[in-house]
């Protein structure tokens, strides 16, 4: 039960953080910049490392938990 509550809280925190980051990025798109890489200009969300981390870290945590759970079942830990 406690792990479920912690997992739900983690998902909520990641979702709120992702929303806030995207909203800040969209506000900054209208500001003038000195130089911007063409890839970032075409794909501002996908080329942002923070957004990539917000998407990758939860996936890696779930995969790590599944590997840990697998070894717990097999009795290898």
UniProtKB/TrEMBL annotation:
The superkingdom listed in its UniProt entry is Bacteria
**What are the alphabetically sorted keywords of the record?**
Membrane, Transmembrane, Transmembrane helix
TM ranges are 6-25, 46-71
In Swiss-Prot or TrEMBL terms, this protein is called Short-chain dehydrogenase
